[in-house]
Fold:
Amino acid sequence: MNVSNNDGSVVALVPAAGRGVRLGESTPKAFVTVGGTPMVRLAVDGLIASGAVDRIIVMVPTELVESAVALLPPSESVRVVIGGAERTDSVRCGIAAAPHAAHFLVHDAARALTPPELIARVVAELRAGAEAVVPALPVVDTIKSVDARGEVTGTPDRAGLRAIQTPQGFAADLLRAAYADERLQATDDAGLVELLGTRVRTIPGDPMAFKITTRLDLLLANAVLDGARMAGRS
Ligand code: C5P
Structure:
């Protein structure tokens, strides 16, 4: 625990070190452009525009450190560090680079169109005392569990399910504790914190915070930006 070193700051960690093969591009996903701008730049611009984040640490593959520095805004509050083999390794690298943070946001570069207003709402919850807060949307599809043969084993009540987005916000010492145990595994950061027994609060998410994972997502993101630009010109 690091309470005495806590400087009160909100530090956003942006994992951008994935290889992103699902998008079918040769460029790592976070560096693929949407509306002409790399996703990681859009994500960082959104964090800055929220006015709620003090520092931003972007984790990228070793060979892309220089390119990342060149394409991100030249600001003392934005830093690029080398990520790791898995997303959890990349987040761990980011945590290590911010020993004095009071609060962490973990925000996927792939959620490039996240509205700054959503980011500010997550930070407001942290400032109001929440230890762990995640944006959540109701699930529109029926979700089923299946076994290894693809046979359905259950249909959980959709009313009690949520799709979880980023940024996910945490008291810094809580996230440090969750990542200190390398045996813990989860598909998101809040999942690790849940394994420690901490309750995670949800706030309403935003459809624009969708994760750009497939070609279809990329088409949608480009169309959204085109539409916004056309509306700006009219
Ligand atoms: O692959 P997925 O969509 O789950 O990746 C989520 C985010 O985690 C992406 O922004 C990706 O760049 C990042 N990531 C990372 N380090 C890895 C793998 C993924 O920073 N080793």
Q: What stands out?
A: Residues 215-233 form the longest helix (19 residues).
